[in-house]
Amino acid sequence: MHEHDQGEAATTAGGATAKDAATAPTPAEQVVLAAAGDPHAFAHALAALEPRERTAALAAAHKLAGNAFVAQALLDQKYANAKASYVVRAGGKDVMVYLPPKGLPPGGAVNVFMFFHGMGGDYAAAKGVTDAKSDTSHDNAALAADIPGAIAAAGDTIGVCPAGGANPWNDVKPGQYRAMLEETLAQLAQELGTGALTVGRVSLAGHSAGGKALGGAATEIDATALNVSDVTLEDAGYNFDSYQASWRGLREWFCLGDAPKTLRVITKDRAGGTHGVVETGRQFAADGIAAFAKERGLNLTTTPVAGDATVREGGMTLLGGLDLHKDGAPQGRLRIFGVAVADALPGDGPAGKDPVAHWKVRNRSMKAAVLAGADADHFGTAAQPGPYRVLHSKAPVLDADLHPIAGQALSQGTAVQVTAHQVVGDTAYAEVAGHGWVQLAYLEPAPPAAP
Q: What is the distance between the alpha carbons of residues 178 and 162, in angstroms, rounded to a whole number?
């Protein structure tokens, strides 16, 4: 009898029949089966494969698990650099979802922090903008601003970060911001098996062109059962025409939404630029609100709030603001925070101001925006003495009168000990032991030592 006539009688060295060998899973199929129906596990396995093996595994996944499984795995793989807890498709956008490392608190309500990135935002990128050598056209805000770390510090908050594309938020249709959040929460509840999530408050923040999303998002989400308690503009307060629709919506939310509302404008500018939205005659200046009240027949009054000399982490200082009352009752709180911007130094790029200061405003304020929520008067913790390191290539050292000391500067990466802080004008300074005073914008707290 010829070998091909022996059929099922032929066996492999391990005792399996030829038929068994023919029907055994291929290596590509084994990768799929090992994921045990979990597309997140499959995405992790894909990352370890060679390109040809990856293609075979994806084909096997289509065959064995279906298109939805593959779509989720590809989504996870695309945004692996964002270090999200989950990635979902919601409201027509890819959305990064961040959970506290210890999970959501049992029972009770959870809070939501929803962030809108600016131009060049790219959660698939390997890095975010942190220094002059960064690629501003591929900016992963999750990494540069440490969104996972901020969510971890909060402990009771879900981070929701839609990906808007390189030129973001210009294509969003009415109702889409609401859908981004509602569909994300629904999918997350299904993934966690918790049933519908109970949301306490919703906080919104936007950096740069992310400001164009804030008005629409605030009004759409606040019109649901959810409450948008606070909105933070991270160097986003431009007065360009393309931002006006957003600012009109945000003013509606601030003046007419369920009280109290907290609005923060964080800016590196003291006139124009991202300070524009709070300047005389603009939407959130006292006279701009008065004009809105007259137009609508509303009883709105404002009381100015003075700045203070507290130096906050990241070099933020309170420049001022206002309290808003409607029909005599508290309605909203506007607070304007300045972030001192150091002069550009050799190696930083063009002469003048730090070329990536615009992104550093976001990076320095993100944790504070997540933690503060609706609290208008406690934004950012006071800067503390302790170990710092020098951010810039050559940070000038100043004397007690804040005049440069000839020939004295600190090199990038130098470890220093800060003993005190002060604000002069609108610039924060740190006293460095053994040296003198240095602009706080040139320093950052040293990361904790590895355990």
A: 12
